[in-house]
Amino acid sequence: MRLAFTIQRYNPELDAAPHDETYRLDVTRGMTVLDALIRIKNELDGRLTFRYSCRSAICGSCSMTINGGEKLACRTSVRKEWERHGGITVGPLRHLPVLKDLSVDMGSFWGKVRAIEPWLRDENRPAAAGPAGAARFHNVDACIMCGACVAACTVHEVDKSFLGPAALAKAYRFVADPRESGHARDARLATLQGPTGMWDCTRCNFCVEVCPKDVQPMEAIIRLRRASIEAGHDETGGARHVVGFRDLVARFGRLNEALMPLKVIGWSLRKFLHILPLGIRMLLKGKVPNPLHSSMDGPERVRALLERDRR
């Protein structure tokens, strides 16, 4: 069967903007997108540039955008893509600088991984943990650093300084490691509190959808946030939102949207005046609960659930 492959081409040294080129290729049973790209390069256009190495979904080199989603070309079936989308379109990872064609500059990606110091900090750590310790990582250590999650991240799309799901998931791997001392763990969590850190994630879940190794970076970020709050880092807006949400549900059995903003800003007159117009709009839209409304039935059951989850 002969199929058309539409590939984004771009050479920053020669081209003013990216453009698509279409190649027609006879495909065989079991062919992957990477197999097709190699044949296109060898048989049709030797200028085509892309990365690959292991061809076994281990190295992460061939991560690219295929039919609008971040995927490893070496494990993406041509037949399944054609049946699902009616065509094959291939481009570089999004939101990363293109070096040429399908190859992107991963420098910023590796810089963010280095920024979280991906090693155990404490020199006087205890002996290596056994299998029970390894289980705490929740598969985060399976990450192959392909960059798919960063390319899919909606926060990284608008803020390139955001550490990103891969680096934050890697940070959780060391927070969860029982060989790191409590002091080193607390210091690691403290460095992730500011802007571009763990609280900037919007939980869009795209990183989970595209991860080829089921690392589930968003879930790792949530566990990172939980560990941060348990360690006493609860002064950021994100931490205040989580704690305030829980406290209000425990108190009323449901969310009180009028009190929620006050939980986030704390005792700050300046911030209160800043959100006051929001409160007025909420009142006019009927989003402020009537203080005289009847209480919800069974709030103690909600509190029991929250306490069980905390344990």
First CA to last CA: what distance? 58 Å
**Strand elements, count:** 7
Helical residue percent band: 40-55%
Low-confidence stretches: none
Strand content: 5-15%
Mean pLDDT: 90
Q: Whole-number radius of gyration?
A: 24 Å
Strand neighbour order, sheet with most strands: 2-1-5-3-4
Shape: elongated
SS element count, helices: 14
Which structural class matches the secondary elements? alpha+beta
Task: Please trace the helix and strand order, writing H or E for each element.
Answer: EEHEEHEEEHHHHHHHHHHHH
Q: Summarize the main sheet.
A: 5 strands, mixed
Structure explained in plain terms:
With 311 residues, this protein is an alpha+beta fold. It is 43% helix and 11% strand. It is built from 14 helices and 7 strands. The longest helix has 16 residues, at 237-252. It is elongated. It starts with a strand and ends with a helix.
How would you summarize this macromolecular structure in one to three sentences?
It contains 14 helices and 7 strands. It has 311 residues and is an alpha+beta fold.
Secondary-structure topology with pairs:
Elements: E1 2-9, E2 19-26, H1 33-44, E3 63-66, E4 69-72, H2 78-85, E5 88-91, E6 98-100, E7 103-104, H3 107-115, H4 131-134, H5 148-152, H6 154-158, H7 164-175, H8 182-191, H9 206-210, H10 217-230, H11 237-252, H12 260-265, H13 269-284, H14 299-310
Parallel strand pairs: 1-5
Antiparallel strand pairs: 1-2, 3-4, 3-5, 6-7
Helix pairs in contact: 3-7, 7-10, 11-14
